[in-house]
Amino acid sequence: MGDEDWEAEIIKPHVSSYVPVFEKDRYSSGANGDTFNRTLASSSEMGDGSSRRDHFMRSGFASGRSLGNRDPGESNKRENTSTVGGFGVGKSFGNRGFSNNKFEEGDSSGFWRGYQDGNDSEGSGSSRRGGRGSFRGCRGGFGLGSPNSNYEQDEGTQRSGGIFGSRRSALSGADNGDTFQSRSGSGSGRGGYKGLNEEVITGSGKNSWKSEAEGGESGDTQGPKVTYIPPPPPEDEDSIFAHYQTGINFDKYDTILVEVSGHDPPPAILTFEEANLCQTLNNNIAKAGYTKLTPVQKYSIPIIQGGRDLMACAQTGSGKTAAFLLPILAHMMRDGITASRFKELQEPECIIVAPTRELINQIYLEARKFSFGTCVRAVVTYGGTQLGHSIRQIVQGCNILCATPGRLMDIIGKEKIGLRQVKYLVLDEADRMLDMGFGPEMKKLISCPGMPSKEQRQTLMFSATFPEEIQRLAGEFLKSNYLFVAVGQVGGACRDVQQTILQVGQYSKREKLVEILRNIGDERTMVFVETKKKADFIATFLCQEKISTTSIHGDREQREREQALGDFRCGKCPVLVATSVAARGLDIENVQHVINFDLPSTIDEYVHRIGRTGRCGNTGRAISFFDLESDSHLAQPLVKVLSDAQQDVPAWLEEIAFSTYGPGFSGNARGNVFASVDTRKNYHGKSSLNTAGFSSSQAPNPVDDESWD
Ligand SMILES: Nc1ncnc2c1ncn2[C@@H]1O[C@H](COP(=O)(O)OP(=O)(O)OP(=O)(O)O)[C@@H](O)[C@H]1O
């Protein structure tokens, strides 16, 4: 988040959200276009994994070795070299920076200097604040600075000290994307707290729960305020219940092994009817197009209805959101809730937290959908939007509060939300919510005055990944008799995603990306990169290549982020370049491809990223560029994740895994990457299986995976 200085240098007001100003052409096929092209991903072929794979192999994309061979000599310059010029002060884009493939090498002028300078100031809120200013709608800029930092650490690492730096804010009150927004130069912007993937504003309400690091950064009295008011979501029923179709593999969910651990779990339900929900909820479920429960829903709904605490782990895109929303709503309807009415202090019965703004907004929309026609009122509040607007929404009534952590603490501090009535606390992406980025905020939340103790509230945690150490931390939040539901392999990738790992050196990545995207055509594709600056860079580069692209990352204004997501969702920009901020939870229809331009630093992150495709029984593809210089540490967990998901494992990747980890490494070893099961060793609970297709003895034995530990 320290790249504000170079950002100020960008002069490209005509590019909003990276929608290039050209007529989209039909993208002529690249060299391999005749084998890897749009028709490959047509629904008929998507159903046939083998034929897809064949095409893919023929196209050459799976040929890691040959790709890798092109790279020697172009590696190991990643961290200590600078880029070509072309992005210096006042310069336009597109000269050497884009034509030269080696954008990480070269001299230290222009783009690169800003690139590095920005990171240099990562930990220093004040230095960042001084130099901001940019055109809204046109992020990404290239300022000047000294090339002495490591841009890789931009978004993928935990901050210390600097994590509470300033959150940039627009000075102008106009939320007009085209207006020039000068940013604070006062050195006193709103207090900002930056987690790993998210930046959330923490202000200083009267009784603000300010951490040490927040101290002195008042959100109220110093610096500019965030003025963005998100447009209200459509109110018509069709929009509220808009949904996409489940895919051809939806029924295969029934064959996934489910393990429930902990004392005395209630039996799973098999149908929505068995959940005994009220008629309004049933109507809403039907209008949402749900006819059949997913495994995580079959097990979680009765557990939550039984009043138990829960940690649930299920593959990406398999319906975890409804798994907690439906039973909570059912309880609320059954127990009766205070109907929404204006009050300065609202006391919601349910608080849901999630790590990113877009995700919490999505959860809110789901809550609104399922509570349609009831007196339950859900409200959302998240950073990057006007606090006053959030407060106005909240005081009108709030039974379910959906919030990002920093904004939640802010609102609590302002005494707009009281916690005494909280019966349900939901941590979505719970492993992320408890890690070093958000864990401290969550601890503060549960020790806020008024927050019922864990014995008196129901705490629910959901994620597709649950590392062991996080499971242990979670014990602090959960009653000791909580239940653990594992659908499939804890931390495993969704099997509906066809995964391909290509060996691509740093300096061949852009060329390869363009080649793949040209062959993909207009199919929706998310391209993940490791840093915010690189997201801007690659998005702009792709626009230059006449590929309609937008970008989302933590340094974009919230309005820009939402615009980008909107443009991607509706297909206006079929390519979204993103950092990890978009890795988790986002449920976007028709994302057919995920490309890891940069692999993430952890395997969990990989699993979440590729889970943006292949959702709800639909198939998808993930292509990852594996750079020998920087990604070797991922070889072993990648081999494991690939083989668990029954994907082809490239021989070269296995070799790297072996050579990295020595003769002790076995293809079945998992290392310490994931817990394979509930980490509590002392429970005497039973395990139950999702019966369709397996009996206990026939089912794959989850204990096999413990050899990884
Ligand atoms: N029983 C169901 N029938 C049909 N569609 C469903 C059902 N349950 C969930 N869905 C749909 O499946 C999609 C994915 O659900 P959801 O976003 O809750 O997945 P998730 O498990 O939370 O994924 P992630 O791990 O990525 O956060 C959504 O569009 C949701 O509406």
Automatic annotation (TrEMBL):
Cellular compartment(s): Cytoplasm, Perinuclear region
Gene Ontology terms: cellular component: perinuclear region of cytoplasm
GO molecular function: ATP binding; hydrolase activity; nucleic acid binding; RNA helicase activity
Catalytic activity: ATP + H2O = ADP + phosphate + H(+)
Annotated region described as Disordered, given as residue ranges: 26-230, 688-709
Extent of Gly residues compositional bias: 132-144
Polar residues biased stretches: 29-45, 688-700
Domain Helicase C-terminal: 512-657
Gene Ontology BP annotations: meiotic cell cycle; regulatory ncRNA-mediated gene silencing
Protein keywords: ATP-binding, Helicase, Hydrolase, Meiosis, Nucleotide-binding, RNA-mediated gene silencing
Biased composition, class Basic and acidic residues, residue ranges: 71-80
Entry EC number(s): 3.6.4.13
Class of enzymatic activity (EC top level): hydrolase
All copies of domain Helicase ATP-binding, residue ranges: 301-484
Residue numbers covered by motif Q motif: 270-298
Record text on subunit structure and interactions: Found in a mRNP complex, at least composed of TDRD1, TDRD6, TDRD7 and DDX4. Interacts with RANBP9. Interacts with RANBP10. Interacts with PIWIL2 and MAEL. Interacts with BMAL1 and CLOCK. Interacts with Tex19.1 and, probably, Tex19.2. Interacts with RBM46.
The family this protein is said to belong to: Belongs to the DEAD box helicase family. DDX4/VASA subfamily.
Alphabetical list of PANTHER family matching this protein: ATP-DEPENDENT RNA HELICASE DBP3
Name assigned to this protein: RNA helicase
Gene: DDX4
